[in-house]
Fold this protein.
Amino acid sequence: QVQLVESGGGLVQPGGSLRLSCAASGFTFSRYSMSWYRQAPGKERELVATITSTYGITNYADAVKGRFTISRDNAKNTVYLQMNSLKPEDTAVYYCYVRYYNNNYWGRGTHVTVSS
């Protein structure tokens, strides 16, 4: 079955960086677009970034453009989110996502806290 396992979250000071990873299994990873979402306390889950399968085309939420970079390694079945210049408002649980055969799959999430 489809499994998505995020890692790399933690506590970081404003202006710092983190790299999140999502290890995928249970489907042919290279054929599917992958996304990162986040959910801050008391807020709805929002799309952060997406990377397509074939050409690796990326798309970002306005709030993270120029600071976050999504990438993928199809040989490792892994998608990454490099987060730079982090702000307190980036504090959230970050989730990996794939839509596979008309079903939505999420990982359990990894916590990111940006605070001094």
Summary: The chain has a mean pLDDT of 97.
